[in-house]
Design a protein that fits this description.
Layout: E1 2-3, H1 7-15, E2 19-21, E3 25-30, H2 32-38, H3 46-52, E4 57-62, H4 70-86, E5 95-101, H5 110-128
Parallel strand pairs: 1-4, 4-5
Antiparallel strand pairs: 2-3, 3-5
Helix pairs in contact: 4-5
Length: 154
């Protein structure tokens, strides 16, 4: 997964106001199909949309000082990168993501972040794939199905 680096790329994703969230993180996303369906891009966004159409996934991280000092923020970023790499296959083949840490993300065990990231990536894919998530957002898992197709936690 490539990384979002420029300020313009970050603002393009954040400006679309599409997101999924959990207790400790928020994922803002931009997908070419959702861009075409919702509205035509603004003048400055056209170049970013053209770049996005190429078959790739890009991710940026936003970890503010409210999460902790520099050592703590870097630890959170390393965790997010590792989780995103491991779960990259759950995402659409072409998307831009900005993963934003909430202030409590530094104190959460890795396993809890893993479960939250998995749930958010699956919810994002459901939203993009035409499936609608249940009101209440990504924190709810009762709208997912398990391997046998039964309702419940996946």
């Amino acid at each position: 997964m490539e990384r979002l680096k420029s300020h313009r790329d970050f603002t393009t994703v954040l400006r679309r106001r599409r997101r999924v969230s959990s207790h400790d993180l928020v994922i803002h996303y931009l997908i070419p199909d959702s861009v075409a369906v919702t509205s035509p891009p603004a003048r400055g966004d056209q170049a970013a949309c053209d770049e996005l159409v190429q078959d790739r996934r890009r991710m940026g991280l936003a970890v503010s000082k409210s999460v902790g000092n520099a050592v703590t923020r870097n630890k959170v970023k390393r965790r997010f990168r590792q989780l995103a790499r491991a779960k990259e296959d759950l995402l659409p083949s072409c998307c831009d993501l900005v993963i934003r840490a909430k202030p409590g993300a530094a104190d959460v065990p890795f396993q809890d972040l893993d479960q939250q990231m998995d749930r958010l990536f699956r919810d994002l894919t459901l939203r993009v794939g035409g499936g609608r998530s249940v009101p209440g957002g990504a924190g709810r898992t009762d709208h997912l199905t398990n391997e046998t197709g039964e309702a419940g936690v996946a």
